[in-house]
Each structure stands twice: as C-alpha cells, then as structure tokens.
Design brief:
The protein is an alpha/beta fold. Helices cover 40% and strands 22% of the residues. It is built from 12 helices and 12 strands. The chain has a 10-stranded mixed sheet with strand order 2-1-3-12-11-4-5-10-8-9, sandwiched between helices. A hairpin with a 5-residue loop joins strand 6 and strand 7 (157-162). It starts with a strand and ends with a helix. It binds nicotinamide-adenine-dinucleotide (NAD). Nicotinamide-adenine-dinucleotide (NAD) is lined by residues 14, 74-77, 93, 263-264, 286, 289-295, 301-302, 305, 343.
C-alpha cells in the first residue's frame, strides 16, 4: 500500500475543528486500504505565536519541507490583532508559500446541484458549474520592486507598486494550467490586459507559445481580465481552466467563488515546481475561508472546504484520483440528501454541527463503496 507523509497545520479559530473531520475521512481511506497516511501536526498562526513568539517555528517549517503535502486550516483572530507585524498570524502562511516555492494556486469553483439555489446567480447559470482558476501566486504586483510610498519635492506623496513578470514565471504557470486542462475539458482561458499593460503583452505571447509548442491538443483562448470578470457573472459555464496573474487571479477567483454559495464550501491547493529527481511537487492545501472567530468553538463550522482540500491533495499530490472522485461524490450525496451546516442552510431548514457533517460524509463514503 502506498504511504504518504502529511503535515497537518490546523491553525486558529475553526481550523482545529474542521481538521478533526479531515482526520476521520483520512482514516476511512486508510481502513479501506487506499493508502497509508503518516501524519504529524504542528502550529501555525496565532497559536504558534503564543507557543514560540513567531507565526511558524523552524522545526515546523522543516516538517513542512519534508512532507508529501501540507494540510492547512486557517489562521488569525482578534487575540493577535496587536502582535508585531512580522509575527502576525498570516506571516506563517506567507512563509510557507515562499519557502515551499508555491507559485501555482488552484481554486476550483464547483456548484453542487443541491446548492444551485444558494448562488447569487440564477440556478440555471450555475448548476453543474465546474471551473478551475489557476493563479500565479509568487510574482506580479504584490511582490514587484520598487514598492514604496515616497514624498515628492512639492510635499505630495506618491505610491508605487510594480507589476513584473519574467518569461519563466509565465511559462511554469501556463504549463500547470495546460496540464490540468488536459485532465478536464481541454480548454484554457488566459486572462490578462495586453491592451494596456506590457506584462499583459508578454503574458499573452508566452502563454500562446507554450500552448502552441507543448499543448496543441488543448484549446487556448485569450480574454481581457475585465471581460473575464463580466463573463464569470454572465455565463460562467463557458470556462474550464482560467489562468491569470497574481492580482487578476486574486479578484477573479473571489468572483468565481461567490458563484457557488458559501465560503465554507471552497477548497484550494498551492503547488510548487516538480522536483528534478522525484517529479513530486511541494504542495499545500487549505480552505479559502479564514479562521471564522465569530463561530469558533461552537460546532457550527462547515468542514466541507477543508475536506474538499484533502480531496485535492488526494488528486494532485498522491495521484489518487479515484479516491478524490469518491470523496467528491460523498460530499455531493450528503448535500443532495439535504444535510446542511448553518452557513449553507436556507431559512427554516434543519442544520447539523461540524461533527455531524463530517460523520455524514464518512457515512456517504460507506454507502457509495458498499
Ligand atoms: P472568515 O473567512 O474567517 O469568515 C467570514 C465569514 O464566513 C464569517 O461570518 C464566518 O463565520 C464565515 N465562515 C467562514 N468559514 C466558514 C465555515 N467553514 N463554515 C461556516 N461559516 C464560515 O473571514 P474574516 O472574518 O474576514 O477573517 C477572520 C480571521 O481569519 C481574520 O483574522 C483573518 O485575518 C483570518 N483569515 C485567514 C485566512 C487564512 O488563514 N488563509 C484567510 C482569510 C482570513
């Protein structure tokens, strides 16, 4: 039986509650002989600051480096609002992304039929929606230099952020998008602003070249990023994989996310470059939502985004696509059956706790594979 080394970082707020549910799912797959998961747990975010005075310790960073995949819950909360900037809870996540070289962020937007009516769009526009946003995560305007606010001679201030991309950064994210499209519906939509930005011109050239030379079987279209935002709320099902830079990806993935209902439903993956020898990528899987301090400790959190993140780990880090499909089916079945945590319930509908939702998903796994 294949064995994988999984490093769990539950974090703060609802992070530990939803991670417990992943452990249940994980042990179900172990008992079924799908794979062996060696797990270790560490501290990240506010809890790590309380224990070590920093958002992640060096020993936990080393465990993250050594793992086949990192599962991350959420960090932050009002308790740590005034800690030094470098030790703020988010610094733990940023350090992980940077040190593991996680340049590709994958955010699926899947609309489960049972939740189509919860979307802000008409159900027929989103029912069956299944798109994947591939966002460049380590470059672009969030990191480009110069990045500063300077005072001019006349006393006025001027703020500068720099949007910068090199060929290799665009090539590697384009390859991730094309590879993933090949496992889906074979279509990549590249969103940039080549009409007004030099980085958009280069982005378009490089993505076109990679597509033509390496992935001729995958359909490629270019769409201006602003038009892409419009199309996402007008006719989202036209897309399969959307690839974009850090800034546009930040915005477009949030737009796509809201098509599907609640934050509690949204998983994500961040991947690094394949290792030259083993071919394995460093990877971190996390729900899109934060630590939800308003509901932490009350058993109200929806664990589906966290469990869905584990499903992505099965698919992208462990090569267990069938197991991932099974888990996605189990989630869908539970929703079809009307089981709802409070965040996805319609007014007046019965709701279940975090633990009950986790147990329902395990029960559905049993039923489907009986
Ligand atoms: P949030 O995502 O934590 O919560 C927003 C709203 O959605 C809240 O009402 C919350 O109760 C609800 N919600 C979120 N996840 C849910 C779930 N699984 N089930 C049910 N309801 C859920 O965002 P916020 O309130 O802006 O931030 C709270 C804290 O989380 C802050 O400290 C913020 O910095 C941090 N944060 C962390 C991450 C991360 O760890 N990656 C991401 C975003 C925010």
């Amino acid at each position: 039986m294949a064995s994988f080394n999984l490093f769990l970082l539950p974090g703060d707020g609802i992070g530990p509650e939803i991670m417990v549910q992943v452990k249940e799912v994980l042990s179900w797959f172990e008992k079924r002989g799908v794979a062996k998961f060696e797990t270790e747990s560490g501290l990240v975010g506010g809890c790590a600051y309380d224990a070590h005075g920093k958002a992640i310790s060096e020993s936990d960073m080393a465990l993250a480096q050594a793992a086949d995949a990192v599962l991350f819950g959420a960090v932050g909360g009002p308790k740590w609002a005034d800690v030094p900037y470098d030790a703020r809870p988010e610094a733990g996540l940023l350090r992980l992304r940077k040190d593991l070289g996680l340049f590709a962020n994958l955010r699926p937007a899947i609309c489960y039929p049972a939740l189509a009516s919860a979307s802000s769009l008409k159900p027929e526009l989103v029912e069956g929606l299944d798109i994947l946003i591939v966002r460049e995560l380590t470059g672009g305007v969030y990191f480009g230099e110069p990045k500063e606010i300077v005072t001019l001679e006349n006393g006025e201030k001027r703020a500068v952020d720099t949007q910068v991309y090199s060929t290799h950064e665009i090539e590697r994210i384009a390859r991730v998008a094309f590879d993933l499209a090949g496992t889906r519906r074979n279509k990549v939509s590249s969103a940039e602003k080549h009409n007004v930005m030099k980085s958009g011109v280069l982005w378009k050239q490089v993505v076109t070249k990679v597509g033509k030379e390496e992935y001729p079987q995958v359909e490629l279209e270019h769409v201006l990023a602003d038009n892409c935002a419009m199309q996402l709320v007008r006719r989202p099902k036209q897309y399969d994989v959307i690839v974009c830079d850090n800034l546009f990806g930040d915005i477009l993935s949030d737009v796509a996310a809201m098509l599907t209902g609640s934050l509690g439903m949204l998983p994500s993956a961040s991947l690094g470059a394949p290792d030259a020898v083993t071919g394995k990528r460093k990877s971190l899987y996390e729900p899109v939502h934060g630590s939800a301090p308003d509901i932490a400790g009350k058993g109200l959190a929806n664990p589906i985004a966290m469990i869905g993140s584990f499903a992505m780990a099965l698919r992208y880090s462990f090569g267990l696509g069938d197991a991932a499909d099974l888990l996605d089916k189990a989630i869908s079945r539970v929703l079809d059956g009307g089981t709802r945590t409070a965040d996805i319930a319609a007014p007046g509908e019965n709701t279940v706790s975090t633990t009950e939702m986790g147990a329902a998903i395990v029960a559905a796994l049993n039923e489907i594979s009986a």
